[in-house]
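Notebook entry, structure prediction.
Reason for the run: the old model in the group folder had no record of what sequence produced it. Starting over properly, with the input documented here first.
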Amino acid sequence: MDGGCAVFVCSCFSVTEQEVREHANAGACTPRQIAAASGAGTDCGSCVRTIQGLLGRAAGCPRREAARAGAAAVATVPAAAVPVAALR
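New structure, fully documented this time:
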């Protein structure tokens, strides 16, 4: 550590905020992926919202960026371009 005080996100498994950020930087973009990497959120679950908040602020998550790009692409497709059969 850098000598600072560790801020625990998950007290059940002693997972710190820094560890969650490190896992996110390594590609864990969802609370489930953080849980698989660290165990955080798999016991009492009280830390899941905090983990979601940390992940929500993490910029550059490849999966999140792809989802945003896909959502933007879908939003820009004109309604006339969608076949009527696809809507049924």
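Summary: The CA atoms of residues 5 and 16 lie 10 Å apart.
The old model has been moved to the deprecated folder.
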